[in-house]
Amino acid sequence: MPLLELDHVTKRFGRVVIAEDLSFTVGAGDTVGIVGPNGAGKTSLFGLISGDLSPGAGQVKFDGRTITRLDSAARCRLGIGRTYQVPRPFTDMTVFENVLLAAQQGGGLRRKASYATAANALERTGIAADANAAAGRLGLLARKRLEIARALATGPALLLLDEVAGGLTDPEVTVLVEIVRGINAEGIAVVWIEHVVRALTSLVSRMTCLYGGEFIGDGTPAEVLANPRVREIYFGSDPDLSTAEPLQELEKKKSNE
Fold it and tell me: What is the largest CA-CA distance in the chain?
């Protein structure tokens, strides 16, 4: 039984098609990368999974349960955690307070359990040293770590990452990939939307391309990146795809120079 299942999901805003009869499954512990040009509906797809959006047709199932009519808070309690493209922490609160709030409000934990979970999430994302810092003073990489830590504090079985590598340098992306790799090694399924495609090729075992509300490629990263239609859509619009080498290979090349 799949952990997540979208069953013929459709969503439109007027004439704008967000999802057109989409069917999609993710198994427990899977790593899936989603690529697609801007405006393809990738973030809206996450909204349909997390409960920020309701489908016009079709069903969303999680861990064998139909959750189509559940709101985002209920889905979070069931085990769906997500990040957002632009981190928006509570800037006047400390890093620890931000994550503690996620553990309590998102994960439904109280007292010692919430404190322990928040501290653990900071450790897992490598940001424990900044626990007492004001979140508004963090640099971009630290904000990305905090965004992931907040999602982890809710106790997800499925983690949705929305362009968390955007704006980072290659070494910073390497750090982020290793954080996500560690999370997945704990058995948490990861679905990662990303324009920095080399980050995905370093981690995911499966990749799919979303375009015009439809999946136009699904398979291993190599298979999807070699798909003629995927290449036609990307070349000229996403130069990062033409250099989509795994980060480990890039690091090897640098070390040999």
Answer: 55
For the beta carbon of residue 256, count every other beta carbon within 10 angstroms.
6
Tell me the CB-side half-sphere exposure of residue 167, using CA atoms within 13 A. Answer: 12
* Residue 67 pLDDT > 70: yes
Quote the CA–CA distance of 51 and 78 in Å, as a whole number.
12
On the question of pLDDT at 257 being above 90, the answer is no
What is the pTM (predicted TM-score) of this model? 0.91
Residue pLDDT, tens place only, 104-135: 999 999 999 999 999 999 999 999 999 999 99
Phi, psi of 97 (to 5 degrees): -65, -40
Question: Are 73 and 90 within 8 A, CB to CB?
Answer: no
Contacts of 24 (CB under 8 A, 6+ apart): 4, 5, 6, 9, 208, 215
